[in-house]
Amino acid sequence: MRSNAVALLTDFGLHDWFVGVMKGVVISINPDASIVDISHEIPRQNIVAGSFALAASYSYLPVGSVTAVVVDPGVGTRRRVLCARSAGRLFLAPDNGVLSGLMAREGRAKLVSVENDTYFFKPVSSTFHGRDIFAPVAAHLSLGVHMEDLGPEIGDCLRLEIPSPQTEGDLLAISVQWIDGFGNVITNCPSVLVDEIEARWGGELSIGAGAEAGEAQVDLRDIKIAASYEAVGPGQLLAIRGSSGYLEISVRQGSAAEILGIAIGDKLHLGRKV
Amino acid sequence: MRSNAVALLTDFGLHDWFVGVMKGVVISINPDASIVDISHEIPRQNIVAGSFALAASYSYLPVGSVTAVVVDPGVGTRRRVLCARSAGRLFLAPDNGVLSGLMAREGRAKLVSVENDTYFFKPVSSTFHGRDIFAPVAAHLSLGVHMEDLGPEIGDCLRLEIPSPQTEGDLLAISVQWIDGFGNVITNCPSVLVDEIEARWGGELSIGAGAEAGEAQVDLRDIKIAASYEAVGPGQLLAIRGSSGYLEISVRQGSAAEILGIAIGDKLHLGRKV
Amino acid sequence: MRSNAVALLTDFGLHDWFVGVMKGVVISINPDASIVDISHEIPRQNIVAGSFALAASYSYLPVGSVTAVVVDPGVGTRRRVLCARSAGRLFLAPDNGVLSGLMAREGRAKLVSVENDTYFFKPVSSTFHGRDIFAPVAAHLSLGVHMEDLGPEIGDCLRLEIPSPQTEGDLLAISVQWIDGFGNVITNCPSVLVDEIEARWGGELSIGAGAEAGEAQVDLRDIKIAASYEAVGPGQLLAIRGSSGYLEISVRQGSAAEILGIAIGDKLHLGRKV
């Protein structure tokens, strides 16, 4: 199933012409391409963040679409460029782990190493593969080129160690994997795991940090897990099963990250309400 | 008259994948959709600002287009979702007043309460109706679904009190409703009202603030209303009938907001030049 | 050769609805337009920066495309509006020098002064020609209107003095013309000139600043010109033939501009490695 949708996820920001040039290359090759910007504000060269943003968004892209993921601190080195087919969609990315979140959710993907330079924009620079490799190859894929034409199939790709929730006695150790623009703190605890634990432990759960967690500076023990922002008043903390499929800490009409002084990577605990 | 144009106006910012996911949902449903970003930088959860930005932009969108306005601090609560037809265009928005500026300009609109979940992306989360309600419903409307299919017609919606210019003796009390990225100060005084007052009062008008206005820290009494930036030298203040239809204070090749220390909501006076 | 591609390059930023309104105007006129944002973050009213961004990006846009360049501190004054045909593409811009980089690269262009108001959005405001002139004229050009219909052909346009590398004894005096979002320092020294000098002088080259250059605060004499970021370790400085066709100073996985304290306009020296 072919789609004209070409999605872009980069850490290029919007200050420069880099994203615009990628789009120019795409529509020069496929004038009917429909380009979707997932985000260009991935923290610079932060592969873990790029992996999470992709995992949170890919399933909302059209089946048959092509996504170019360009968070690529190794541009110009010998790192491979990958094309992956998973969940009925195609993904182009450097082989640096940025597909880890996608692979973890989908379990498997067909992978090729992109080596055939037929579809590259030549001469290929050593610093801007977004323009010279990712954009033109994505455009050709959106025109119906087969991923098998791009290079040899490979067995696996580099995968990041993504910290997953760990049982520690009566608590579940979790961590912060994203802070959104509203200040919502997105943990690495899947909402389905919250469901399971609620069923197993019974009673209400709460999130704790502080002395036990050894990281955050505020004790969160009283943050209640609620069904919607409505459960608390304006300015109050709550935890919620977030729209990305993970437990989030929020402040109704405010920024949880700011109030709690929490950053990506910080540790938290999920436990039974005391 | 049907259009494939789907416009988005949100306070989501561009840091996260939220806008990208909305676009993915739209083109998954209508692959021919032409998506226009009005802005995603409305100050977070600021309904008044969202209302003003919509009022300043909607008339430039294609007739037949659908605009999703997602400035929605009440997401997940029982606030209604509205579909309005006005000025030959369709608008989806939470029933929180964000359509007030549009309604004030157009006077009337046909309104339905969006309750039919046929076109929702399910399961509907409690925190991201942009993805789960606004984007898919907008896409279906752009495909030709009738607004009458979305839910029951309703008589009115929540409307904000938008401060309008008030006569105070020989002066007109006005206020600041937007400050743009160049630092231009957009007041709530319609340019047509400036015309009327000029005709009635005769002579030149000027804008005053400071002690009389009781808010701003600079006396603006000498700001002259001019026809174009050319009327003053670089770095000089002037007032101008702005492109949004309101009187604006500007600095030629500079930021009026910065020079005057003025913020949204501050009060000003329009009076006869002394 | 006609294309539906309409590219936009402005200093409007994304905070306001200005870019969105331009897009609304474009697709109201040409519903099949494919709009490409080159960038909207050109430093406000900085014509030199706009000229450089255009020069670095135009050749990646589709042949037959129309680009509206709106960096226009003289909006509302008597400055002309230009339509240029060059490199198989059309460009609309104020006659303020913002086409200088393009003209310098291409050597020649056909130019008309845009005076026929048939295609303008009326009434034309005195402050927002992006909406009232550039967007509607660009849209009509993308529909096949001939540039000759826009106004009389003219011989030349305003051109900026763009500083070019100058030989000073054994050194080449160069300067900084852009700093990108990664902190890469893009000089005005074309990569082909680096090739020539390497061939002529033999041996390795390096970039110097500091006392000799009289501007930057750090002595850069030891920055080696390398083929890719791989040549140095993380956090190390290098110079590289950049993707825009100019010599750049970079830090692998870091910001060169920050480490060196360098800004646009600063002077540097290219010399033989000592």
What's the layout of helices and strands?
The structure is a homotrimer of 274-residue chains.
Chain A: E1 5-10, H1 18-29, E2 34-39, H2 47-57, E3 66-70, E4 81-86, E5 89-94, H3 100-106, E6 110-113, H4 129-142, E7 153-154, E8 166-168, E9 171-179, E10 185-190, H5 191-201, E11 205-208, E12 223-226, E13 237-241, E14 246-251, H6 256-260, E15 267-272
Parallel strand pairs in A: 1-2, 1-3, 3-5, 12-13
Antiparallel strand pairs in A: 4-5, 4-6, 6-7, 8-9, 9-10, 9-15, 10-14, 11-12, 11-15, 13-14
Shape of chain A: elongated
Oligomer: homotrimer
Structural class of chain A: alpha+beta
Q: Can you tell me the residue ranges of chain A where pLDDT is under 50 for at least 5 consecutive residues?
A: 211-218
Rounded to an integer, what's the Rg of chain A over CA atoms? 21 Å
Helix coverage percent of residues of chain A? 10-25%
Order of helices and strands of chain A: EHEHEEEHEHEEEEHEEEEHE
Percent in strands of chain A: 25-35%
Q: Give the biggest beta sheet of chain A.
A: 7 strands, mixed
